Amino acid sequence: DTEVTQTPKHLVMGMTNKKSLKCEQHMGHRAMYWYKQKAKKPPELMFVYSYEKLSINESVPSRFSPECPNSSLLNLHLHALQPEDSALYLCASSPANVYGYTFGSGTRLTVV
Amino acid sequence: SQELEQSPQSLIVQEGKNLTINCTSSKTLYGLYWYKQKYGEGLIFLMMLQKGGEEKSHEKITAKLDEKKQQSSLHITASQPSHAGIYLCGAGYFYSGGGADGLTFGKGTHLIIQP
User: Fold this and answer.
1) B44-67: per-residue pLDDT in tens?
2) Is the dihedral of CA B71, B23, B73, B102 positive or negative?
């Protein structure tokens, strides 16, 4: 299995809702990442997990809460989002000490 | 200023013509990725370069890494409609063997192929 699987592919949520994005990989990668991509902009790094520990948080608002329950799974919990948080959310994984990123196909999030 | 400058921002090329996209870093590169993206979709991996002078090819796409200039170029030969899309370069700045530090992306090049 050489894929990063993201679910759901599309999500529409209200500003008072709580939802979660899921990312899964079975390549034995020990680093996992969340990126946010607004329309016509490049992806921007949000969080990095290395060996299931949060190693980088790029000053992301607390309404985004990442979780890494095990080495194969990465979640992004969403709560009280704003319409400007609407974007494509990309997950990626890599071996922890070697370059070799694999990206998922993303979750298209719309906040209404 | 932007760590990773990508140019041009947009490119309109007649089908069959060659084209080049450049990506220049203001810091030392340890890994350089090229991706293609269709609007609203995920990233399609094209190539990864790590060593100065390295050159890789896949079908009609060639990428090179110039260590002295901290620059990479992506060259498409005899462009086809299937080459249309957004091309993104992503740089790794983490040395110790690799990177659990994420990639920094250039702003992207929007490529249009005219028939």
Assistant:
1) 999 999 888 899 998 899 999 998
2) positive
